Fold:
Amino acid sequence: MTKFKRIFAYVFLTIASIISIFPFLWMLISMTNKSIDVTRGSMLPGTQLLENIKNLFQTVDIVPAMVNSGIIALVTTVLALLIASLAGYGFEMFKSKKKDIIFNILLLSMMIPFAVLMVPLYRMFGSISQVMPFIGIDTLAAAFLPTITTAFLIFFFRQSAKMFPKEMIEAGRIDGLGEFGIFFRIFMPTMKTTYAAAAIITFMNSWNNYLWPLVILQSPDKQTIPLLISNLGAGYSPDYGVIMTAIVITTLPTALVFFFMQKHFVEGMMGSVK
Amino acid sequence: MSNRMKINATGWFFIAIATVVITLFYFYPMAQALILSFQSGLGANLSFVGFDNYIRLFHDPTFITAITNTFIYLLVQVPVMIVLGLFLSVLLNDKKLKFKGLFRTAIFLPVITSLVAYSVIFKYLFATDGVLNQFLVKFSIIPEAIEWLTDPFWAKVTIIIAITWRWTGYNMIFYLSALQNVDQSIYEAARIDGASAFKVFTRITIPMLKPIILFTSITSTIGTLQIFDEIMNITGGGPGNATTSISQYIYNLSFKYTPDFGYATAVSFVIVILIILFTALQFRVAGDKND
Amino acid sequence: MKKIIILLLAGIVLLSACSSGSDETSESGDNDEITAWAWDPKFNIAALELGEETYAAEDKEFNLKIIENAQDDIVQKLNTGLSSGTMKGMPNIVLIEDYRAQSFLQAYPDAFYDLSDHFNIDDFSDYKIEPTSFEGKHYGIPFDTGVVGLYLRTDYIEEAGYTMDDFNNITWDQFIEIGKDVKKKIGKPMMTLDPNDLGTIRMMIQTAGSWYLEDDGVTPNLAENEALKEAFRVYKEILDEDLAIITSDWSQMLAGFNDGKVVSVAQGNWITPSIKAEASQSGDWAVAPIPKLDVPKAVNASNLGGSSLYVLDVPGKEKAAEFLESTFGSDEDFYQDLVTDVGAIGTYTPATDGEAYKKEDEYFNDQAIVSDFSTWVDDIIGVNYGMHTYAIEDILIAEMQQYLDGQDIDDVMNDAQQQADAQLK
Structure:
């Protein structure tokens, strides 16, 4: 790359970064400000940080909500990655006419707005409550069950599997590995970055999921983070400083997940496995 | 032969769990929703009305506005975002680039920035007497302040900027992860042949990433056709209903007004049909052999 | 590979842990506990907590579990739950905004518990009856009033040469005249307006006893609605004369007066705590009666928001009804505490003679604002909010844009009427 192009890359990335970071930065600044300064959009750090943190912990039970959201997001991520990658791999590597039809039908499931599925789903969980109350209405399990596989993830894994060299599968079969052996020992480790990307996205979506947990979870001790933040902003005179503090604290887990996962995005992954 | 059958059977097992789960949690409720779309009434007082809900759609000015707006978002925003995301991920995939992790995290931050925070700051920045206007006027880029949130045209622009800002980093993640799976020796060969960076991008990177580009364009299309959060939080659909989207209308019909779930569901199935058409079109254009 | 197995195992352990955890709570949840859904911790929730405390003196066993949710969230949860037909997970008591009450009562007629025998509706402000009743039965115990006032910056108006008397029982046109003069003299606009929230319009038309719907609560009343047209005219004039700052959300509205950018605030009395949040303006505020529309029979009193308490037809309803009966339904002293401790003005008429209502407020230059608000409550003309307040409002928001762009008012309203008729048939 020429020097000019290099400079261009840095300048472009820096501008993009600044634009991207700006609201996040403001969020950080706002947690140190009084409510009134937040509504004024103040860009200057204030002295209210400790006060805001203290008020936050006094007014809401943020720790149990973090634990609930954490459980839901972790379980969802692990199960969704496993189930969806099995399926994505299966659809691509064991291609058949019938499976392709099924695949196309599955894609339909991400095309319908979730809002209209809620009433039938709620009714379904109402019936489940009669026989299996431990996964019925007002349980964490009910909050994550509908998200443990999504067509979105299956689609992503299938498209990624298209980039996976088929010779490696044949090589695995010659080595006497079973089909699951090939999946777990060759495909999974090779596609590490694909899993990393899927993990980031799934964790984040689950952590931020709002509509379904809102209707299915009732007890305060089952509250998740987005519901808690929604409540904080609900009054006639919300304290925006406290809200921003809550937002920053609850954004950290996703930021950390991202930061650690993106390290896997290093070049030459394929080379090292070959 | 028996070996092949065995592999075939295993293949079915791979997709079994996912198929069962999605059927249970999506298709079963979807079937019920479909039935609901032939019913009308407020709340629990429902009666069958045949295709009335679907006929009503064509005479509903709010629905027509919502669908027009949604298409404007789709046509402008999806191409811009995908090109930008691709471009950024290629820059960020450069071996010799310093502060890679920092840049990547920065550009991904909008994805995890809370919607609440970002809508407050967007409204503040884009207010008529806000920072953005002050800046643009001061440097004479524009003659007078733009009404970013209260003018029907500019409010749409603001929404498009907001969606692009929030979701470019999201798509970038998929490209970045895919770029790691591209065989480096192809690039080296191209470089030895003296191919320009632009040529490498169009002749190697894009074809190699085709499955993922197809994936992001389809999922972005679906996401944009269902756009809700940004509109609800930044403009609330206004001014008037200049920025309202189909999903916001569905939400209003189901929860803001006295619920008319039958009609709301009918509106949803129109989205489904549109998405199917777009998805089929994109598969066709990409020449992907999934069918 | 190992990592993945470990993660998987961890996932399964977590899964079983949380499902067994939920087991325990669902058992304890079936006790005598009464649940209530409400929003706003400082206001509604605080009021319910106060009720619980008061009632504990009568019944020590009583256990009220108050669950806090944003109002929109409650609406969504109720609609999903009630229309799915499973009452599981639904609360005993729920707070519903008066504008939305009929929509719930009529859409889910079997879901609510008749409270007619548990309180005397005549003890409450007249205008609260219509929203909380359906087919002659009273389902909601009226709670707070949304009685509105015109909050004024006394320092600003004095600077411009006016006194509070100039604002006493005026019309919106007089308000605009004064506003123009004030703007000329001190350069400050009168108020903030949010074009996406027609609360101001609602407040204006109720001064004339008019609403978006006919008295039946279903038929849209727009094309022939003189009060509504008048309100639109006033709204436009306020904007045309540059007497308002345009805002696009709640926080900007709050910042408008907290920052001293506007001369007045026309809102429900629940805005008081937000005004007082800016301590430096103590002594600079006073409250006048709300201006009225210049149409026959209009009064200088109106309402904005306000909500009432409902009991759902689920196990525990009798207990829930008894609790509401002996607190919100009949306890004068409780209402005194409500004013003093929570700042909530109820609509229970016998309580308005109490001490707490007469107290003067330092922040408002020793004006007895609660007492003033309660006087205005009596003048509010009751209207049937009906089922479609927000559906029609969304139509009007769009039409308002057309009107502001210069379209004729009759065309705008005819168009709105057509849309509403088509949508709400």
